[in-house]
Fold this sequence. Notes:
Strand order of the largest sheet of chain B: 9-8-7-10-6-1-4-5-11
Structural class of chain A: mainly alpha
Structural class of chain B: alpha/beta
Order of helices and strands of chain B: EEEHEHEHEHEEEEHEEEH
Mean pLDDT of chain B: 92
Mean pLDDT of chain A: 92
Largest interface: B-C, 83 and 91 residues
CATH topology of chain B: Rossmann fold
Shape of chain B: globular
Bound molecules: flavin-adenine dinucleotide, iron/sulfur cluster
Largest sheet of chain B: 9 strands, mixed
Number of strands of chain B: 13
Radius of gyration of chain B: 21 Å
CATH class of chain B: Alpha Beta
Shape of chain A: elongated
Number of helices of chain B: 6
Number of domains of chain B: 1
Oligomer: heterotrimer
CATH superfamily of chain B: HUPs
Amino acid sequence: MPIRETFWNIPHWAEIAQYIAALLTAILFIAGITRRVLRWRRGRPEKRSGHFWSRIGSLVTQVLGQKRTLDEKFPGIMHFSIFWGMLVLAAGTALATIDWDVTHLFFGFQILKGSVYVVFELMLDLLGLLVVLGLGMAIYRRYISRPARLQNFPVKKLAGDDTYVLVMLAFITLSGYLTEGLRLAVMRPDWAAWSPIGNAIASLFLSLGDPTNQTLHLVIWGLHIVTAFGVLISLPFTKLFHIFSVPLNIYFRSLEPAGALRAANMDGGMGVKEWTQFTWKQLLDFEACTRCGRCQDVCPAYASAQVLSPRNMMVKLDDHLWEKKPRALHGEVVLADELWACTTCRACVQVCPAFIDHVTTFVDLRRHLVDQGKMDQMLQDALSNLGRYGNSFGQSDRMRAKWTMGLQPPVKDARREEVEYLWFVGDYASYNATLTDVTRKTAEVFQKLGLNFGILYESERNSGNDVRRVGEEGLFEMLADKNSQVLSRCKFQTLITTDPHSYNTLKNEYPANGNGRYPVLHYSELLDQLIAAGKLKFSKKLGYKVTYHDPCYLGRYNGVYDAPRRVIEATGCELVEMPRHRERGFCCGAGGGRIWMEEKEVKERPSESRIREAVGLEGVQMFVVACPKDLTMFRDAVKTTGNEQRLEVKDLIDLVAEAL
Amino acid sequence: MKIAVPIKFVPDLVEELTIDPSGTALDTTWLRLIINELDDHAVEQAVLLKERGGGDVTVLAAEADGVDDFLFTAAAKGADRLIKLTGDFSTADNHALGRAFADVIKELQPDLILTGVQAHNDLDGSIGPLLAEYLGLPYVGYVAGITPGGDKVIARKEYAGGLVAEVEVKLPAVLGIQAAEQPPRYVAYSKIRQIMGTAKIEERPLGALESGGGVMIERMFQPEAAERATMLEGSPEDVADKLVGLFKELGTL
Amino acid sequence: MSQDIFVVIEHLRGQVAEVSYAMLAGARQLSKADNGEVVAVLLGHNAQGLAHDLAADRVIYVDHPALAEFTSDAYQIVLAGLIQEHSPRAVLFGHSSIGMDLASSLSAKLGIPVVNSCRTFTEDGKFVSQICGGKIMVEGALPAPAALATMIPGGYKTEQGQSAQTPPLTPASAAGLDNLRVAVKQYIEPDTSDVDISKETMLVSIGRGIQNKDNIELANELAQALGCALSASRPVVDQGWLPTTRLVGKSGKHVKPKIYLALGISGAPEHVEGMGESETIVAVNTDPNAPIFNIAKYGTTIDMFDLLPVLIDKVKQAK
Ligand SMILES: Cc1cc2nc3c(=O)[nH]c(=O)nc-3n(C[C@H](O)[C@H](O)[C@H](O)COP(=O)(O)OP(=O)(O)OC[C@H]3O[C@@H](n4cnc5c(N)ncnc54)[C@H](O)[C@@H]3O)c2cc1C
Ligand code: SF4
Ligand code: SF4
């Protein structure tokens, strides 16, 4: 009967030695893990408990199912193969150990015998092949096709770490096969065919004859075991640690709305000056990064000028935690230019297979810069203006509603009379001279639809969304406070806005100010609802071929992807998607306060890259946006890329107004 | 070095200015007051000097809407002492204000007094030189840089055309700042809030201040429309065409 | 007590500052109201030659080695003496780095009111002063019996204060100039390696409205198409976007080109001081209330970023 002969050909001393080594390995392994855990515990507290089952759920889909990893084909399949292959091999080894050292030793029976055993052998044999396939792909990727995102790490020694992991895994797998092959070559059991690969290897060695093969087997087994223990010992010290840190990071991921930023640390100055001011979860983030570079590939800041790579930031921060001679976090480890380059578009967070939240970390670091008053003059002016006048334009608040002049009937003052919809207009739509036409058009559409709406006139302040992301928490609080006070005095049912940035903070962050009583709708959602309810009917089918740009704060932050698309289609336009759309939408470059900062030398502005992407679509005439800032960004980009004749930038409301 | 910085609030020009029915003063209903920009530079310069060579900075202001916030901001930047003159300043002109400042500054005995070289509503003279005279100190204005050196300072005084004179001034002295060596820094709100808990504004009640400059306004008005430019209307294309025509006509094209 | 109008002549490094001529013109206007003489007060050392083109009825000239360079200390001592001795009806100073060091202190010292930033004087001897960054004008009787005033340029043309005849010169002596507290150590010359914007026939000038460094390129393109130089208001220079040699205004150059195209410049008095005498000022500014429109001949409220690309194309075509 087929039966697992563990420790065949292994002298007794070796068997004993193996167990001693295993014990030592376990000690070192635990010490290594403890070292990491103790480091995280030096971070500040943060609550990440609760929602046990949904957390377990993400472990199933994201760890076992490798869902996000599989979003990209080649690396996805590569990792999936290694992951599952290794997992099963490791489980197999564990089973064999139990089989031999527990059930056999103490209870005198073995599970791995008969048909169970041959199936076990077949499984391991084949899954080993999966590992070989995955490792082959990995080696090809890392050393032959060499995609940019796997190159140029800011910490040089990491290239060695990557190689180490590949070599060790390859060695374990190959030596495992060899051991098996040699064993089969010597023993030639009847069931050898159940290990097709091992058997094939065995046939290669047959000619060498017995004592040689037996010795070879012992040697290679020895190496296999030593490597395996080596890998286990090194696991907490190398990239392999991601096997632990990533599932933990996935388990502890934030389940709060993406649009609600954590309040700033105020202990020892605002934000994060030294790494111990990060929360433990942020430290875990750094340790979970596998340097896969997916984030770098989607980062608009990286694409435009290479100043900021979210991958490099994680790598540098992780390295910083372990520095023997700690450098200064600000200025030496991370540079202000890197921090300011982030548009907080969240593309990196969306693709990271380790579920790292880069944006929160960057904002915490920016908070320190703001605390120190270190920022460029333009941003400083914008913040001063926001503090003094409530808008970044430095204009009088009495000019805020100037755009309503001439509208008949006059736009209602929501502070004086009850309205159904309170329209939070936002700075850009109110003050930017080139946008007020569109703002007025939006009001006219609302009027034609008979909506009972009003605005806050000079009582509106900048919503503070981007102020907060710049890192000026105190100013955000002040703005949010002022807006909340006015809002709480107004009678209305629904808060609406055309600005995704205001939308985000009003919806996700103002509840903290006691303003969660009413629904907040983006105008695309409102229009979509009106269409669905039959209250908005179009008289024309426009028939344009258009594409649509997902604003980061509407899409990725709040998951509003379908409403604007349905509205576009309802106007009778044909929607052609750009390659980067929905969750993968590419930022215009203005978010996170970037619009208030000086523009540094760039290769290609994100907005220009986006316009070129749209121009690449057959026959698309219009580039539709649903954000006032987008309108300015892309109108400009159409000009600077020389595509004025080719592509027209339109606001969603333009289509609606035309089709009415 | 002990530095005193008297500052003043002025009408914010961002707001549309209107003239009250008397026709001799600004309508105050809509008036927003804001720190005189050059005084803000003076505070910055004082803090810079303190940061470089040590010292003690006192900021003094007359009561006005928003002055407390400004004083706390100054403290967050590094000012050590905040003094607010309280009373009725509605009719106080710069002569009166200068005298009031002089009385307080006499007690402080500073080595250096920095203040903005001018404010946009200085009709009856500027604070700096008035103060200097009341205190019997030398005054140098249009200063954009200071290097201390014992009982003297070297002030970089700007003249038209970009000419700069390095002027040696014996201390104590009053300098009129036209620009700090770096633009006034930004102070995070959280810092200001924090300092509000610890810093104290010393109040000096002064009662009502009478005007002392002797300048009477008979009429206040906005520059007349008759002097205004001919406006070119139309689309950017139209305007560009008109401009090109104009350039040709005047022979520069 | 006399009805004479004193004008404190400003000069630096052997050159009379332009504002001095505007003051002489203003003094002439004032003198008509009270029938006094226009008296130029010239302080210096070996500087009597500077008096040759002053449109004054006479010149009081004080020569002293301590007056070789302007210092507020020495000037104040001498002027206080002269004013007390002659009791003029009014003394005019420039609203400048020189005059502003003197007028207010003398007002406090002598107890004579001072009126700042006068632009013109009326027939009947009233001052018209510009405040609030050029947005507000105030008018009032010149305080009596004596007054000091600082003058901003723009109200009178330089030629009005110049004369082909050298006015008679009365020397006066100076005393008490021994223990001065202020001394000039050295001058730092402005950079002259760049173009001299005061010699250009046309200037494209940019202000804070240009927003950021990158946009300068756009303005530069226009300047190049027009074959002229780029100049700027102070914020642009302060940001380091253009060198100080391109600064127009009180602390920069005074320019008088045929065409001064102001892009995104509000027209603050300090800026206008440097370009107000340009032949034709064209202003592009989105704010219809910007004071620049008060001195411009032509204006438009179109956003310069909408205008510039079109204008550059059209200028290129027109060539
Ligand atoms: C002692 C002293 C000396 C000084 N010396 C000088 C000097 O030599 N030279 C000088 O220039 N200043 C000088 N200043 C500064 C002066 O007071 C003003 O602050 C400065 O001139 C303002 O510059 P600006 O007009 O460019 O900026 P702002 O006053 O900020 O005006 C910007 C203008 O641009 C317009 N704008 C904005 N966007 C657009 C757009 N897209 N299209 C069209 N228009 C737009 C706005 O409506 C605004 O009117 C001095 C100040 C002091 C106190
Ligand atoms: S949020 Fe956007 S800009 Fe910032 S690092 Fe991530 S991808 Fe880059
Ligand atoms: S942060 Fe995430 S996406 Fe970026 S390199 Fe690390 S693991 Fe990959």
